[in-house]
């Protein structure tokens, strides 16, 4: 149908007048694909084909993983302070070049958090567990990790993934959405300019073949995914079956519960913004409002505010099937009934309650079975120092994105039990050289 943006696989050779093609990024080089399978990139406003992205060949994908694998030993052995310096330069380059030009929000915050990872990488120590014996643990990188990103936030979601993985000492294989690969390619160029060694980040493109490759390749140790439930369940099952760690952040049905004591003006404005902002194409968008008790009288005013969204009968979204900005409104007599409605839904990404009563907010926050709760905050996405904690059918895996959980996902613990008998100690000269980043 017109208006839909769908990647269409083309099995035709490229012609001189065809739209520009997206390159691969392998071992520090932007290279042309040798494929004969191309996916159209559409301008979502006009559906015009503005470029083509390759379905990477098996040889190209193997080369990308091989580059990651070659780069891993030296990168993992690089001091964490040196890796941090790369990310600090990367943060500045993003600020200077991309913040005003990309749709990805949250750009600097997620990279800033990756820069501060040193304190979260600390291990644990217990001295003298018995005579002359100490026990300690520390975190090590996994190896080659991979990410599969969606179309709706083409810069933000990749930045949830590879900066955190890389500062922990991993190398990374990224597959951006075939609909909007350009943002990730720009991010790769800036990472290269920040001094990241060749091979530490590699980018492939494609659809099902690329996803299956990532799920099956034995050298890939972990997969991060954000996208639909259908794809996420498939990737989680296939990747886990092949012995990989998988974190899959998937779909949602986010509820906003409106109590009759809520601030009416603020609440109605926030409902409209959370439901219809970004055309509803975000996993944390509010898709259901529950008006509790007397709050149901606010419905006419809510409808009135949506009229300001400037939709008219000439627009495609009026004439054809709608894919995003829809708000379902339900009524509940009590808070307990509203909580039951939310908990009976299988998803657990986010929810919000609008109230001026602290006890009501506390009861809702504790009783609702949803991973992220907002109190008078319609889209409760945590800042990067916390973790994204969607739950139930909105998430598969045991460790979620960024924050402490992100560190845990991209690292593994090693525990060492060490015994040095006191009677074997010998005299030694004191060291007077100040330790530095390179030592």
From TrEMBL:
<dbReference type="GO" id="GO:0006210">
    <property type="term" value="P:thymine catabolic process"/>
</dbReference>
<dbReference type="GO" id="GO:0004491">
    <property type="term" value="F:methylmalonate-semialdehyde dehydrogenase (acylating, NAD) activity"/>
</dbReference>
<feature type="transmembrane region" description="Helical">
    <location>
        <begin position="140"/>
        <end position="162"/>
    </location>
</feature>
<dbReference type="GO" id="GO:0006574">
    <property type="term" value="P:L-valine catabolic process"/>
</dbReference>
<comment type="similarity">
    <text>Belongs to the aldehyde dehydrogenase family.</text>
</comment>
<keyword id="KW-0812">Transmembrane</keyword>
<protein>
    <recommendedName>
        <fullName>methylmalonate-semialdehyde dehydrogenase (CoA acylating)</fullName>
        <ecNumber>1.2.1.27</ecNumber>
    </recommendedName>
</protein>
<dbReference type="InterPro" id="IPR010061">
    <property type="entry name" value="MeMal-semiAld_DH"/>
</dbReference>
<dbReference type="InterPro" id="IPR016160">
    <property type="entry name" value="Ald_DH_CS_CYS"/>
</dbReference>
<keyword id="KW-0520">NAD</keyword>
<keyword id="KW-0472">Membrane</keyword>
<dbReference type="Pfam" id="PF00171">
    <property type="entry name" value="Aldedh"/>
</dbReference>
<dbReference type="InterPro" id="IPR016161">
    <property type="entry name" value="Ald_DH/histidinol_DH"/>
</dbReference>
<dbReference type="GO" id="GO:0005654">
    <property type="term" value="C:nucleoplasm"/>
</dbReference>
<feature type="domain" description="Aldehyde dehydrogenase">
    <location>
        <begin position="30"/>
        <end position="312"/>
    </location>
</feature>
<dbReference type="InterPro" id="IPR016162">
    <property type="entry name" value="Ald_DH_N"/>
</dbReference>
<dbReference type="GO" id="GO:0005739">
    <property type="term" value="C:mitochondrion"/>
</dbReference>
<dbReference type="InterPro" id="IPR015590">
    <property type="entry name" value="Aldehyde_DH_dom"/>
</dbReference>
<keyword id="KW-1133">Transmembrane helix</keyword>
<dbReference type="InterPro" id="IPR016163">
    <property type="entry name" value="Ald_DH_C"/>
</dbReference>
<dbReference type="GO" id="GO:0050873">
    <property type="term" value="P:brown fat cell differentiation"/>
</dbReference>
<keyword id="KW-0560">Oxidoreductase</keyword>
């Amino acid at each position: 149908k017109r208006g839909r943006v769908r990647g269409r696989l083309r099995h035709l050779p490229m012609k001189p007048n065809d739209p520009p093609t997206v390159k691969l990024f392998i071992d520090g080089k932007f290279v042309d694909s040798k494929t004969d399978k191309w996916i159209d990139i559409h301008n979502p406003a006009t559906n015009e084909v503005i470029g083509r992205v390759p379905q990477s060949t098996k040889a190209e994908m193997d080369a990308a993983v091989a580059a990651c694998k070659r780069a891993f030993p030296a990168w993992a052995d690089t001091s964490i302070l040196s890796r941090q310096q790369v990310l600090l330069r990367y943060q500045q380059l993003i600020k200077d070049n991309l913040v005003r030009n990309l749709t990805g929000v949250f750009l600097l915050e997620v990279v800033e958090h990756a820069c501060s990872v040193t304190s979260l990488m600390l291990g644990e120590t217990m001295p003298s567990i018995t005579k002359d014996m100490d026990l300690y643990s520390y975190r090590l990188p996994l190896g080659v990790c991979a990410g599969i990103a969606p179309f709706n936030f083409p810069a933000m979601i990749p930045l949830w993934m590879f900066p955190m993985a890389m500062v922990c000492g991993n190398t990374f294989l990224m597959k951006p959405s075939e609909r909007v690969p350009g943002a990730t390619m720009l991010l790769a160029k800036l990472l290269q300019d920040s001094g990241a060694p060749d091979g530490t980040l590699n980018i492939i493109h494609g659809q099902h073949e690329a996803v299956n490759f990532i799920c099956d390749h034995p050298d890939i140790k972990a997969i991060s995914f954000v996208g639909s439930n259908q794809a996420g369940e498939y990737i989680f099952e296939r990747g886990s079956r092949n012995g990989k760690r998988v974190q899959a952040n998937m779909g949602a049905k986010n509820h906003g519960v409106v109590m009759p004591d809520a601030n009416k003006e603020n609440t109605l404005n926030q409902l409209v913004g959370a439901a219809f902002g970004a055309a509803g194409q975000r996993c944390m968008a509010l898709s259901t409002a529950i008006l509790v008790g007397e709050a149901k009288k606010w419905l006419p005013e809510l409808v009135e505010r949506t009229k300001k969204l400037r939709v008219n009968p000439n627009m495609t979204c009026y004439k054809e099937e709608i894919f995003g900005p829809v708000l379902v409104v339900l009524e509940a007599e009590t808070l307990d009934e509203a909580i039951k409605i939310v908990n009976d839904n299988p998803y657990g990404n986010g929810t919000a309650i609008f109230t001026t009563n602290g006890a009501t907010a506390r009861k809702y926050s504790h009783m609702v079975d949803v991973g992220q709760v907002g109190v008078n905050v319609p889209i409760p996405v945590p800042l990067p120092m916390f973790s994204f904690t969607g739950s139930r059918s909105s998430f598969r895996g045991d460790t979620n994105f960024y924050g402490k959980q992100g560190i845990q996902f991209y690292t593994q613990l090693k525990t060492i039990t060490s015994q040095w008998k006191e009677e074997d100690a010998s005299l030694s000269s004191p060291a007077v050289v100040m330790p530095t980043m390179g030592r």
